[in-house]
Amino acid sequence: MITVLRIGHRISRDKRITTHVALVARAFGASKIIIDTKDKKIEDTIYSINKRFGGNFEIESGVVTKKIINNWKGTIVHLTMYGEELNKSIKKIDKSKDMLIIVGAEKVRPLIYEKADFNISIGNQPHSEVSALAIFLDKFTKGLWQKKKFNGKLEILPTDKGKRVISKDS
Ligand code: SAM
Question: What is the CATH number of domain 2-167?
Answer without folding.
Answer: 3.40.1280.10
